[in-house]
Amino acid sequence: MTAETAAQELLTVKDLRVSATRRESQDLHVVDGASFSIAPGERAALVGESGSGKSVTCFSVMGLLAQNLRVSGGSIRWRGNDLATAKREEIRRLRGPEIAMIYQEPLTSLNPLMTIGYQLKEAARRSKVGRREILEMLDRVGFADPRRIMGQRPHELSGGMRQRVMIAMALIGQPKLLLADEPTTALDVTIQSQVLKLMYDLSYEMGTAVLIVSHDLSVVRKLSDTIHVMYAGQVVESGPTDSVLSQPRHPYTRALLSSAPRLGDTRERLESIPGIVPTPDQWDAGCRFRSRCPLATERCAETPPVDVVADRSSACWHVDQLLAEQKEATPL
Amino acid sequence: MGTYIAGRLAQMIPTLLLIVTIVFFLVYVVGDPVGLMLGDNATPEQVAAMREAMGLNQPVFMQYLNYIGSVLTGDFGESYQYGQAALPIVLERLPATLTLAIGAILLALVIAIPLGVWSATHRGGVIDSVVSSISVLAKAMPNFWLGIMLILLFAVTLRWLPVSGAGSWAHLVLPVIALGTGTAAEITRLVRSSMIEILSQDYIRTAYGKGLRRRAVVYRHALLNAFVPVTSITILQFSTLIGGALVTEVVFSWPGLGQLLVNAVSQRDMALVQASVFVIAVMVLALSLISDLLFKAVDRRINLG
Amino acid sequence: GCGGVPGTTSEDAETGADNEPQTLVWAHSVDPRSMDPQDALQTSAERINRNMYSRLFMRDENMEVVPELVTDYEQIDDETWRFTIREDVTFHNGDPLTAADVEFSIDRVINDETLLEYQFFNQIASVEATGDYEVEIVTEGPMPTLLTLLSKSGSDILPSGYIEENGMDAFIDSLIGSGPYQFESWQRDDRITLTKNEDYWGEEPVWNEVEVRTIPENSTRVSELLTGGVDIIADVPPNDWDRVDAEEDISMQFEDTTRTVLLIVRMTEGYVTADQEIRDAIDYAIDQGAITESLFGGHAIPTRTRAPLGVFGANEDLYDDYVYDPEQAAEIVENYGETPSVTLTASRGTYPLDAEVAEMLTQMLEEVGFEVNLEILEGGSFSDVFSEYTNDELYMIGLADGLLDASYSLVHYTEQRAAGQTDYSNETVEELIAEGNRTFDDERRAELYAEAQALVAEDRPHIPLYVQPGAFGVSDTVSWAPRLDDNVIFDDVIPNE
Amino acid sequence: MAESVTLDSAGTESAPPRPPGSSKRRSWKARLRSIPLSGWIGLVCVGIPAVVALLAPWITPHPPASIDPSQALLPPVGMEGSDPAYLLGTDNLGRDILSRLIEGARVSLMIGVIAVVLAGSIGLTVGLVAGYYGKWLDAVLMRVVDALLAIPSVLLVLVILGVLNPGMWTLIFVLGITNWVIYARQIRAEVLELRERQFVRAAQNFGVPGPIILIRHIMPNVLPSFIVLSTLSVATVIVTESALSFLGLGVQPPDISWGLMLTTGRDYLATAWWISTLPGLAITFTVLGILLLGDWLRDALDPRLGGRS
Amino acid sequence: MPPGHRTLRRDSPGGRRGRQELSLLACGPAAGRTEGGDPAVSTSVQPPVQPAQTESPLLQIENLRKTFTVRSSLLGARRELVAVDSVNLSIPAGSTLGLVGESGSGKSTLANMVSGLLAPTQGQVLIEGNRVHDGRGRVSLRGDQGAQIVFQDPYSSLNPRMPVRRLLAEPLQVAPRVPRAEREQRVKELLDQVGLPESAMDKFPHEFSGGQRQRIVIARALARRPRLLVCDEPVSALDVSVQSQILNLLKDLQKELGLTYLFIGHGLESVGFMSDQLAVMYLGRIVEQGPAHQVLGRPVHPYTQALITSSEAVPFRDGGTVELQGEIPSPLNPPSGCVFRTRCPLATDICAEKRPELTPRESTRLAACHHR
Ligand SMILES: Nc1ncnc2c1ncn2[C@@H]1O[C@H](COP(=O)(O)OP(=O)(O)OP(=O)(O)O)[C@@H](O)[C@H]1O
Ligand SMILES: Nc1ncnc2c1ncn2[C@@H]1O[C@H](COP(=O)(O)OP(=O)(O)OP(=O)(O)O)[C@@H](O)[C@H]1O
Ligand SMILES: [Mg+2]
Ligand SMILES: [Mg+2]
C-alpha cells in the first residue's frame, strides 16, 4: 500500500470482503482481504489468476454485485465516503459521471433491442452531454461513420465494434474513475492496442483514473502506471508497473511472469504454476499461495506480513529469499 | 418483407385446408343432424328421406370432395338451424367474442405485467410467494365459477354492475374479469420467469452502471426484452381464450361465437361448425403472423424467412 | 319492466315514464333455433310466435280450444271442414289477412316435408280457399283432433302476399304476423324484441315493448330477476325456489306442464327388460314420491301415465299415483337367477335436476339388487341416442304433449312407432288407440285413451316418473299466472301499480 | 498408461478436500435436508391428496355416492345447523362432501397427472423431433400444430366424447391429445436454439447419432421448461375438466371428480357455497403443491444449483 | 494398451516425419522448403521441393470458400457475406499449423468446416485424402476419421447437465464402441493424461475453473485418438499460468501421440510457441504464410507486421504507438482490391485496383501484398 494520505486518493479499498450467500451452508467469501488505492488520474492494473475476484472487486465498487453477493467486511472509500455502507441512491448518483465501468463481456453487456444511440444517450444524460459529444466520442473510438452507428443495434456490430461502443459509453460521462474489466479480450492485437491507446489518451486528457483488469501482461504494461496482483481473493502485491514486472516481490507474481510465453519463444515447454488454486472454502489466515509455492515453509501458515518498501507492498514471509533468487537468475 | 408476408399467407392455405378437412371428418364422425332436426316424434322413413335430401347418403369421400369444392369457392353451406348461409352468421357474432377476448387479454396484461415484474424483482421473498399463491388460486378457479361469484357479489349483492347481456361498457366488466383472470395468472408466471432470466443478464447490469433508476432499468430495459416471450404466449393464449369465452359467454349470456359454436356442435350443424372454426382459425393464424412481424420489429435479430 | 341497464330497476323505469307500462322483460333458458313458425318445434319459439301470429283457433287460459280468427265453422262430413274467418285482420305490414293466406300457410306445412311441423300436419289432405274469407280443409280419414291441431304451433297464418313477393328468406328476416305484437329485432342467443301492434284487431295490447331474453345459465337468470333486470323468468332451478320466494318483491309461480319425465324401457328380446317381471321390479323399486318431495319440494307430481292431467284423454286414476314396493322388487330380482344389469342413460341439465334424479334412481335400483350402469351424456349425444334408437335398457327423458291431446302421447305405444325403441306391441292397446283416433265423440274418445293408458301402465314400455312443474319467478311489478301449455301470452301479464 | 506424460499440474497433487456442499454422493439424510421449505410445502400439498386418493376406499366416513335426501344441504361443522357426522357438510342429495372430496381426489389427480403425462410426452417428442431435424418434418409438424391450435379444443372434445363413451379414461385421452400442441411449440422453440449450442455441435463432431444427441443432450436441457409447463398444465387440465363438466362433457356419475363437484355445486353458490367452494380449494391446494414441487424439481435437476442457491 | 492408442508413434521415425515437410503444397512450386534455424526441424532431412511427395499431408484444404446470407434489417435485401475466401492450406501429420488473424476474419468458420460442422460453399477439405464433405451439404467423415474440434469457449461446449464421467465417456460410446467395462478405465486414463484427478469424474462443468474446463474439453477431444485436432482459441480467456499449462499439455500430447494440430489464437506469443507453420488471415483470406518463427521474426505483410508491433509491450507513456489506424472494414462491404488497404500504412492506388495474390516469398513463404 502506498503511503499517501487518504485525502489525495480517489478510491481506497481496504480489507474488502465479499461473501456469497448460500442456501444450505455457510457463506462463502469470494473476495477476502483485498486492499489497494487509486489516486486521481492514476492508471492502475489489477491482474491475477482467473477466479481470484478481480471482477467481483470492481462490481463492489460500482455497487452492482450479483444478488447473492454482498460486501461483508472492509471499506470502499470514495473521496472519503464509504461506499460499502452508503445508501443505494448515493451510489447510484456516482455511477456514470463519477465512476464508470467497461464490462468483461461486450457481447452480452449491450441491450440487444435498443439502438446504440439510445444506449449512449442514456449514459450521457446524467452528465448533460449532448448528441454532438456522443458523435465525437464515437469518432474517437474509431468509428468512421458515427451517425450510422447510432441507429444500429448491437447484433449488427462486430465484437470489436461492440467493445468500442462499451468504451465510448463508459467514457462519455467523463468519469473520475474508469473500471475496465478485460476490455480487450475479444480483439486481435492491432485493434486491442488501438483501443488501449484511446483509453490512455482520454485518461491523460481528462484526468480520468483507470483501473484495468487484464490477464494479458503486455496490455497491463502498455497502459498502467501501477499494478495490483490478486491471488485467491486478496491483493498480494502492489507497486509501479515496471518495477513489479521486473522485480516481483511475491512468489505468485514471479510465477505468473515466468509462465507467460514470449514472442519468438524457443522453449520446448512453458513454465507454469503447479497445483490448483485453493477454493474459498480452503482459505485460511495463512498465505494462500503456500500450497503451490516453491519457497513455502511451515511459517507460511501464519498470516504473512505486509512488506512495504517505498511505493511497493507485498505480503510474503520470504521476500528476501525471493529477491536473492532473482539476483542469481537473469532479470526479466 | 413483402415476399415474406406473401409466403406466410400462402402457407396459411394448406393449414386452413388441413383444418377444414379435420373438422369435416370430426363432424362426420359425430353423426348427422337429421335425428335432431326431426325431433321426438320422427319416424325412420322421415329420417331416411331427410338424409337423402341433404346428400348425406353418399359415400364420405364424395361428400368431402363436394364440400371442399364449395369451401374453395367461399361457400360454407347453409346452417340448417338458421336456414341461412353459415359464414355471415358467424361474422355477425365475431365482434362480440373479439371484444370479450381482447378485453380479457388487455386486462390480463394490465394485471400480469406489474405483478410479474414485482414478483420477479422480489424473487424468493414474501411478495413473490403471495403473487405465486394468488396466481395459483386464480388459475384454479374455473371461469364459470368465478363468473357466477362475480355476478353474486357485484351485481346481486352490491348492485354495481349489470348481471348479464351485452350493451354498455358496464356489461363488459364482469365477463372480462371472469375470462381474463386465468390468463392473467398464466401470463404473470411467464412475465415473472422471463423477467428473472432477463434481470440476470449482463446488459441489465450495464444499465444500472449508467446510474439509471431501478424503475427505468426494470420497465425500460428489462420489460422490452420480455416483449417477445410475453407476446408469443399471449397469442397462444388467444385460442385458449376463445375456448374459455365459450363458457363465459354462457354464464353471462353474451351473444358471441362461443355459444354459437357449442350449440352448433351439439346440434350437429356442420356448416356452422365449419364456418366458426374457419373464422377462428383465420384469426389465430393471422395473429401469429402479426406477432411474428411485431417480434421482428422489436427484435431485429430475429431472422424471418 | 326495464331493459336491464345498470342501476335502473323496474321501479325507476316506470316512474320515469308517466306510469304507463312500457317494456316487459322476461327471460327463458333456450334461444329459439329458428323463428320460422312452421320449422321451430320449440317451446321457446312458440312462446314468441303465439304473440306474433294469429291462428284459426287458440287455447284459452283453461286450455279450452276456442276460435281465434274463425268466426264460424262447420263439419261437412267426416273428412271435410269449412271455416269462415274474420274480415278485419291485417298483417303487420298492412296487408289484409284473407283465406288465401290461410290456404298458403296450411298448404305449406302439409306439403313441405323438411319442416319440423310437417309430421303433425300430414293427416290433413288438402286446404282450399273457397272464398275471400272462407276455407275448406279435407282430412285423410276422420280427424277428431283437427281443431286442436289448428290451435297448435305450426298453424300460424303467414302473409302469403309478402312471401310470394319477397321470398321466404326475407320473411324470416322480417317475421310478419298479425298478432298483438310485432317483430322488432333478434340478437341471436341474446334477445328478441317485439313491439306493440297498434292495429291489432283484438283488445289493445298491454305492453309497448316486450323483450325476451335468453339466459342459459340458471344462476344468472335468477340473478337478473333478483336485481330487477327482468320481470319474469322461466325455468327457475329447484334449488333456488325457496330463495326466490323468500325475496320480498318476487314470488314463485308454479304450474303443471304437459312434460312427463319417464324411463323408456327397451323390451327388445335379449335385454333383461324384455322380462315383464323385471320391468315390474324396476317400477316397484322406484319411489317417485321421494323424488318429487326431496328434489322438487312437492311441486312435481308422480304419475303412472305419459299423458298428464289437463291433456285431453288423460287417465286421471294414474295421475298423482305411483307403485313403490321395494320388498317385492327385491324378491323378483332375487328370483331372477342372475343379477339383472341395466344401463340407465340420462343427461345433465336437459331437464331440471335430471342427473340428480338419475343418481337417485340408480341408488334405488341398486338397493333392490339391480346392477346399474349409469350413463350421463352431453345434450347432443343424449338426443342422438333417442333419435337413432340406440337406447339401452333404460333411457330417462321428459316428453311433452304439444297437442294437449292423448293421441299425441299415445303414438309411442303403437307398434310402428315403438319399433326399434321400446319394441312394445300390444294388440289391444293398438286397437284402442286406433279407434280413439277416429272417434268424434269426445267422451268415448277419452274413455278409449284412458283404457289404453291403463294397459300401458301395466306393460311398462315406459315407466313414468313425474310431471315436471313449470317454475317461474315473477317480479311484483307484474301479475301473471303460468299456463299448462307452458306458453306465455304477453297480454296475460298485467303491470302492477 | 504407464508412459503417460507427467504433467506439471494438479494431476499430480492430491485433490483438495471437497467443499461440503458439492459432494455428489450424499446420504439420503443430506438429500432430505437439502429440500427447501417450499419443496416440503409442495410435498405436503401434493402428498395429502395423493395419499387420500390411494386410501379412499378405507377412509371415507360415508359412502361417497350414498344419497340421503333427509340430510341434504347441511353446512360444514362450525356453521349453524351443521351435523358433526358430516364434517364438511352435505350436497343437495345429502351426500357427504368430505367423502366425495376424498373419492374425487383419485379421479382428479389421475386426470391431471395422466393427461399431462400423455400430452407432455407427445408434445415433447414432437417438439424435439421438429426442432432438431427441421426442414420438411418441422414444416409438416408445425402446420399440424397450428391447425390444432386454431381448432377450438372444445370442438375436439365434443367430437371425441361423442364417439367414445364418456368416462375418466376418455377424458384423459381427450385432454391429453388436445394439450400437447403447447408443449410441442415451446419445446421446439428451445430446441431450435439448443441445437446451435456448442456442446451439441461437439457431440455431432464425435459422430454421436441424432436420436442420441436428442435424448442425451437436448432433452435434459429442455426439461426445466418442460417441468414448468407441465406443472401449470396440471392445473389447466383439472380446471378444464371442470369446464367440460359445465358443458356436460366432463366426468360423469358414478365417478366423482373435484371438477364435477365444482360444476354441479355452482347452482348452489348463493345458498350452499360449500358444495362447490370446497372442491375449488382442494384444486388450489393441490395445484399450489404441484407448482412448488415443480420449482424444486427444476432446481434440483440443475447441477449448477447443486449446493448453492 | 487400449486399442487405437498410438504412443508408438513417438519413437517411430514416422512420428516426426511431419516436420520435415512443409505445408504449402497447394500453394505453388516454391512451397516446401525448410530453412535452417528452426530448432524443431533443424535435424530433419531436406525434403524435395517438387510436388513428388512421399506422403500426402494429413489435412488438405483446397480452395475453400464459405459465404453466409445475411439480412441487414427487416426490409433489407439479402446480402452475401464472404467469411472464408479461396483458402488453401495443408498440414503434414504430426505438425501444427497456427492460424492468427483479426477477429471476424473467418478463423472459426474455417475450423468448423474442417471439423465437418459447416458445409463449405466451394472447395473441399481432405483428411488423409478423404473428403470431409460429400459436396451435397452432408458430412461424410465424422467421428474417428474426421477432425476433432476444441471450441473457443470450453464452458459452452460442455453440456452443463452432465458430470465429467459422462462427458468423457460419450465419444467412447460411438461406434466402434469401447465396451462398457473398459470405458471407466479409459475415462480415468484420459483424466490422467490431461492432469486432472480422478475425483473430477463426478463433478459438473460449473465446478471447474476455466483452465480445468479447457482440459476436460481437450481430454474429450482426445478420447477417440483423433489424428487431427482443431483448437479454436483454446487459451484466450485464461490467465497466463493456466494458459501455459494447457499449451504444455497440448505439446506433450503431440509428442506422445503424434497429433496434428490446427491451432487458432489471438495471442501471437502462444500461437508462435505452438506452431511449426503459421498462417495469417485477414477478412476471410490468408495474407501471409510460412514457418512460424520466420513469419514472426521477419513479417512480410504489413498486417502481420502490425500484429507483431502491437504485441510488443511498450508502455504508452514511454512512447508506445499504435501501428494501425483507419476504419476496420466490414465483411459485408469489403474494400476493393486489397482488403487491408483501409488500414495499411503502405497503401497506394494500385491497392484499390488490384487484389494482391498470395505469392511465394523467399523459399518457404507466401504473402499477398503489392508492396513487399
Ligand atoms: N454470483 C456469484 N455467486 C457465487 N460466487 C461467485 C459469484 N460471482 C463470482 N463468484 C465467484 O467469485 C470468485 C471471483 O470471481 P471473479 O469474477 O471476480 O473472478 P475474476 O478474477 O474476475 O476472474 P476472470 O479472470 O476469470 O474474470 C470466483 O471463484 C467465482 O466463482
Ligand atoms: N452463421 C453465420 N451467419 C452469418 N455470418 C456469420 C455466421 N458465422 C460467422 N459469420 C460471419 O463470418 C465472419 C467470420 O466469422 P468467424 O467466427 O469465423 O471469425 P473468427 O475469425 O473466428 O473471429 P474471432 O476471432 O472473433 O473468433 C464474421 O464476419 C462473422 O460475422
Ligand atoms: Mg472477471
Ligand atoms: Mg472465432
TrEMBL record, chain A:
Sequence ranges assigned to domain ABC transporter in this UniProt record: 11-257
GO terms under cellular component: plasma membrane
Main location group: membrane
Organism: Nesterenkonia alkaliphila
Membrane disposition: Peripheral membrane protein
Highest taxon listed in the record's lineage: Bacteria
Alphabetical list of Gene3D superfamilies matching this protein: P-loop containing nucleotide triphosphate hydrolases
SMART domains named in the record: AAA
Protein name: ATP-binding cassette domain-containing protein
GO-annotated molecular function: ATP binding; ATP hydrolysis activity
PANTHER family: DIPEPTIDE TRANSPORT ATP-BINDING PROTEIN DPPD (PTHR43297:SF2), OLIGOPEPTIDE TRANSPORT ATP-BINDING PROTEIN APPD (PTHR43297)
Similarity remark: Belongs to the ABC transporter superfamily.
Keywords tagged on the record: ATP-binding, Cell membrane, Membrane, Nucleotide-binding, Transport
NCBIfam families: oligo_HPY
Subcellular location: Cell membrane
Family matches, as Pfam families: ABC_tran, oligo_HPY
GO terms for biological process, alphabetical: peptide transport
Automatic annotation (TrEMBL), chain B:
Recorded topology in the membrane: Multi-pass membrane protein
Transmembrane segments: 12-31, 98-121, 142-162, 168-187, 222-252, 272-295
GO cellular component annotations of the record: plasma membrane
Keyword NADP: no
Residue intervals of the ABC transmembrane type-1 domain: 94-291
Keyword Lipoprotein among record annotations: no
One Pfam family matching this protein: BPD_transp_1_N
Localization per Swiss-Prot or TrEMBL: Cell membrane
GO BP, one annotated term: transmembrane transport
Keywords: Cell membrane, Membrane, Transmembrane, Transmembrane helix, Transport
Family from the record: Belongs to the binding-protein-dependent transport system permease family.
Name of the featured protein: ABC transporter permease subunit
Native species: Nesterenkonia alkaliphila
From TrEMBL, chain D:
CDD domains per the UniProt record, alphabetical: TM_PBP2 (cd06261)
Domain of life: Bacteria
InterPro entries reported for this sequence: BP-dependent_transpt_permease, MetI-like, MetI-like_sf, OppC_N
Entry GO terms, CC: plasma membrane
Membrane association type: Multi-pass membrane protein
Main location: membrane
Membrane-traversing stretches: 35-59, 109-133, 140-161, 167-185, 226-251, 271-294
Keyword set includes Calcium: no
SUPFAM superfamilies assigned: MetI-like (SSF161098)
Ranges where the ABC transmembrane type-1 domain occurs: 105-294
Location of region: Disordered: 1-27
Record flagged with keyword Disulfide bond: no
Family per record: Belongs to the binding-protein-dependent transport system permease family.
PANTHER family: D,D-DIPEPTIDE TRANSPORT SYSTEM PERMEASE PROTEIN DDPC-RELATED (PTHR43386:SF1), OLIGOPEPTIDE TRANSPORT SYSTEM PERMEASE PROTEIN APPC (PTHR43386)
Protein name as it appears in the record: ABC transporter permease subunit
Organism of this sequence: Nesterenkonia alkaliphila
Lineage: Bacteria, Bacillati, Actinomycetota, Actinomycetes, Micrococcales
UniProtKB/TrEMBL annotation, chain E:
InterPro entries listed in its UniProt record: AAA+_ATPase (IPR003593), ABC_transp_ATP-bind (IPR050319), ABC_transporter-like_ATP-bd (IPR003439), ABC_transporter-like_CS (IPR017871), Oligopep_ABC_C (IPR013563), P-loop_NTPase (IPR027417)
Region annotation (Disordered) ranges: 1-20, 29-57
Compositionally biased residues, Polar residues: 41-57
CDD domains: ABC_NikE_OppD_transporters
Superkingdom of origin: Bacteria
Family matches, as Pfam families: ABC_tran (PF00005), oligo_HPY (PF08352)
Ranges for domain ABC transporter: 59-308
Alphabetized GO MF terms: ATP binding; ATP hydrolysis activity
Gene3D superfamilies in the record: P-loop containing nucleotide triphosphate hydrolases (3.40.50.300)
PROSITE patterns: ABC_TRANSPORTER_1, ABC_TRANSPORTER_2
Composition bias, Basic and acidic residues: 9-20
Gene Ontology BP term (one): transmembrane transport
Family: Belongs to the ABC transporter superfamily.
NCBIfam families linked to this entry: oligo_HPY (TIGR01727)
Protein's UniProt name: ATP-binding cassette domain-containing protein
